[in-house]
Each structure stands twice: as structure tokens, then as C-alpha cells.
Design brief:
467 residues, alpha/beta, 2 domains, six-stranded parallel sheet, two-stranded antiparallel ribbon, 12 strands, 50% helix, 12% strand, WecB/TagA/CpsF family glycosyltransferase, exopolysaccharide synthesis, WecG_TagA_CpsF, membrane, transmembrane helix
């Protein structure tokens, strides 16, 4: 998906003057109309410290809800140099939009200390602005203790410390700080930065929300296991139920409804029906086949060492990579041995298939014969990586060798089944497979999807072309 330009984003909310600075060249992706940075933490930190970027806002589900009703805040976001994705809500919205997950969750609580560690190595200093009286000082002391060599240029609270804007600006500028952290909460911190950025001398200004409270010990952060499963919002809700109930319970529901509505609007009627069908069928299959899946997993583990599930990178819609799930049907060194077996392929073209592949285990031959090894891909369908019906998901190396016309098959999600699968599978040559996939991509009637799913059952039972 192509990221919106700054002017397009502004038109979604409130018209705003165009920025006087050129938009920094970081990868971006449009999520809910917001041009969010879409790259890893290391690349972001390098850009922030290089002078490319002056103002940074972290965007989570709450921010999106606030922007929908606060035109001044939406305009401030539009003028920011970089919007960084923060939290599970934004990731879900990105997935709903059909583009897969963003590169990384760039929340301010984790990214800012990492940024300051790099800044300390470069001899840069930081000023902390915001929080209740005493909070910025305690946060600064914690940062100085945790990050060797970090220079604290100064601190100022977010109450009386900012009541007189001229004095606050004078204190910040006189400190000689290279980086300014502003912790006043959404939307106040973004509005303050937007209003005063042109009169600030620090080269980098970030709105960091509750970071000072975490560092000062005012609020206990969620344990690492809770953060890993992306449930930090629930931890915050348990700590402050009265203050945060509206934000997290009603707010999350409102955000998800907004994300779903936008994704449905963008997808079109047929795409919505197809996606709904995918979710319903994959969820039903998971429930019905659970005993079989567990039994197969146990047999695989008994026959040969190694993980039950085989994970491999494949290329999905729009050329985006994703991890495909299959029951492991080969020995653990199968991929390493494939390069030595290229001459054994039974199929013409760039896709490798060998009827008597020595890398396949005994149970693996049975799983492949009846396509049972493909069953974990219902998880890929449920997660939105794949569809029940679509072109075969290709390997990155295969895509790199595609002739030009074959790239059209990447316009849609790859499928568990399709025209190629019900017409002979591995007995079909590469060029014929491409012709079938392109015919499907150019038509895609829902009735054909239903027919192909029914035909798949017959093909699986016959085992034709499966090896």
C-alpha cells in the first residue's frame, strides 16, 4: 500500500499549511489515513539522530480516536516529521488494511531509552519537559543512572513550568539541549510541540506520553511477558481502572470499529465477502480438525527430531513476505540439501518438485499424498496472509526469477487451493500454472471460489499430482 502524502493526510482531518521542512525519507505506510513509519528501530534511531527529523509523535489507538474528534490535534500530527506506530491496535489496523504487520512496534517507552543510549555515545544532551512537579527530575536521575555518559541539560515540569511559554522556551534553548522530550499526554504534548517548534533550538523533539511516570516510578510498567503478548494496555487498565476505563474499553471498541469500517470501505463488496468467507471457513476448519491436527503433530514428533510445524518465508499479495505454516514432512536439513538436487526436479520451470525426493520422511509422504501437511495454513488464512482460494504462495527465489507477466499473480492473496491445485498440482508445468493463476486473478468470481473448495476435496482424496 502506498503511503499517503502529507497533504492527503491533512485533507482527511483539517486543512493545514504545508510543512516548511522536506518530509524525511523513511519508509512509510498509510494506516487509517496516517503515514506511519514502517521500518525497524535501528533505522529509525539513525534517522532521528542524523538531523533528518525534528518532530516525532508516537501514534496508538487512543491517538487515532482523539484525532478523529480533535481537528487541531489531527493537524499537528499532519505537520509532524515522523509518526511512529505504537501498540497492538495499530498493528491490527495495519493487518485489517491487508498489508500485513508493520515492521516493528515503535512505542516511545522502549524506543526513547534506546535512542538516548545512542545519543550519549555521540555526546548529545537531553532536556525533560513535563510531568507533575518532581517527576521530570526523578526521571532524569533514572536516565543518568541507566545510560552511561548521558548529559541531562535540564528539566521542567508540565504545570507551572510551562504556564509561561516564553520562560519555558528560554530555559530550554539556554540549556543547549540537543534533544527535547515532552511528556504532557495526548493531545497536549503534540499541540505544544506544534505551536512552539519553530522557536525551539533542540534538533530533535519527541512527545513521549507516560515515559517520565514510568522512569520516575509513579506508574509500574507491565511485566515483560505481558508486554511480549501486547497486552500492556490491560495492565494499565488494572492499575487505573477509573481513569482509563473509557480510554481502553470504549476507546478500543471505537478504534476497532473505525479500523474495520475503513478496511471494508477500501476493500469493496466482493473483497469483503471473500474475506468474511475466508475467516468463517478457516475458523470452522480449525475447530473441526483440531483432533486430527494434534494427532498428526504427535506422529511427526515420534518419527523424527525437530519442530512439528515447518515455517518458511513466502511472497504474498503485493510482493510482501510472510511466514507460511505447514506440518513438517521433511528431515531437518532439507533446505540445505535442495541446492544439490536441482537436477532431480520433475517439473519444468523454476519451481522445484521431485516425485522421489529423499528429503521427505515416511510420514511426510503420507501427509503430502493427502495434502494433510497443508492444513496449518488455515492459520495463515485466519491471520490474513492467505485466502482459502488463490494462486500458489511462491518462494522469494521463485519470484526473483519470474518472467514479467507472472508478477500479476501477486495482485491477490495466495491461496491454500486454486485452479492449479485441482487440475493436477505437481503434474502441471510452471507456465501452465501461471496461466491458470492469471486467469483466476483476472476473474475471481465468488462462485468459482466455492466450486474450487468443493473440487479440492475430490482432488485430495484422489491424491493426483501430490508428492
Amino acid at each position: 500500500m502506498t503511503a499517503l502524502t502529507q497533504s492527503q493526510f491533512q485533507s482527511r482531518f483539517q486543512p493545514a499549511p504545508p510543512p516548511t521542512r522536506a518530509l524525511p525519507t523513511l519508509p512509510r505506510r498509510a494506516v487509517l489515513g496516517l503515514p506511519l513509519v514502517d521500518c525497524g528501530r535501528a533505522q529509525v534511531i539513525s534517522a532521528l539522530l542524523s538531523g533528518q527529523i525534528r518532530s516525532v509523535c508516537f501514534v496508538n489507538a487512543h491517538c487515532v480516536n482523539v484525532a478523529a474528534r480533535d481537528r487541531a490535534y489531527a493537524a499537528a500530527l499532519a505537520r509532524a516529521d515522523a509518526l511512529l506506530p505504537d501498540g497492538i491496535g495499530i498493528e491490527l489496523a495495519a493487518r485489517m488494511a491487508g498489508g500485513g504487520p508493520l515492521a516493528e512496534n515503535l512505542n516511545g517507552t522502549d524506543l526513547t531509552p534506546a535512542l538516548l543510549r545512542r545519543a550519549a555515545e555521540q555526546g548529545k544532551s537531553v532536556f525533560l519537559l513535563g510531568g507533575r512537579p518532581g517527576t521530570a527530575e526523578r526521571a532524569a536521575a533514572r536516565l543518568a543512572r541507566d545510560i552511561a555518559g548521558l548529559r541531562i541539560a535540564g528539566t521542567r515540569d508540565g504545570y507551572d513550568g510551562v504556564r509561561d511559554s516564553a520562560r519555558a522556551l528560554a530555559a530550554i534553548n539556554a540549556s543547549g539541549a540537543d534533544i527535547l522530550l515532552v511528556a504532557m499526554g495526548v493531545p497536549m504534548q503534540e499541540l505544544w510541540i506544534d505551536r512552539h517548534l519553530d522557536r525551539l533550538t533542540p534538533g530533535l523533539v519527541l512527545g513521549v506520553g507516560a515515559l517520565f511516570d514510568f522512569l520516575a516510578g509513579n506508574v509500574q510498567r507491565a511485566p515483560a511477558p505481558v508486554r511480549r503478548v501486547r497486552m500492556e494496555w490491560a495492565w494499565r487498565l488494572l492499575q487505573e481502572p477509573r481513569r482509563l476505563a473509557g480510554r481502553y474499553l470504549l476507546g478500543n471498541a471505537s478504534f476497532l470499529a473505525r479500523a474495520l469500517g475503513r478496511s471494508l470501505q477500501a476493500a469493496g463488496r466482493e473483497a469483503v465477502i471473500k474475506r468474511t468467507l475466508d475467516i468463517a471457513v478457516s475458523a470452522l476448519l480449525l475447530m473441526l480438525l483440531a483432533p486430527l491436527l494434534l494427532g498428526v503433530a504427535a506422529i511427526i514428533r515420534l518419527e523424527s527430531p525437530g519442530p512439528v510445524i515447518f515455517r518458511q518465508t513466502r511472497v504474498g499479495r503485493g510482493g510482501r513476505p510472510f511466514t507460511i505454516y505447514k506440518f513438517r514432512s521433511m528431515y531437518m536439513d532439507a533446505e540445505a540439501r535442495q541446492a544439490r538436487m536441482r537436477g532431480l526436479s520433475d517439473r519444468e520451470g523454476i519451481c522445484f518438485k521431485a516425485r522421489n525426493d529423499p528429503r521427505v520422511t515416511r510420514i511426510g509422504r503420507i501427509l503430502r499424498r493427502f495434502s494433510i501437511d497443508e492444513l496449518p495454513q488455515v492459520l495463515n488464512v485466519l491471520f490474513g496472509h492467505m485466502s482459502m482460494v488463490g494462486p500458489r504462495p511462491a518462494l522469494p527465489g521463485e519470484v526473483a526469477a519470474y518472467p514479467d507477466h507472472a508478477f500479476e499473480r501477486l495482485r491477490v492473496r495466495p491461496g491454500i487451493t486454486g485452479l492449479w491445485q485441482v487440475s493436477g498440482r505437481a503434474d502441471i508445468g510452471f507456465e501452465r500454472m501461471i496461466d491458470m493463476d492469471l486467469a483466476y486473478v483476472r476473474s475471481r468470481p465468488l462462485l468459482l471460489d466455492l466450486l474450487l473448495m468443493l473440487m479440492t476435496a475430490r482432488t485430495v482424496i484422489s491424491g493426483r499430482g501430490a508428492y
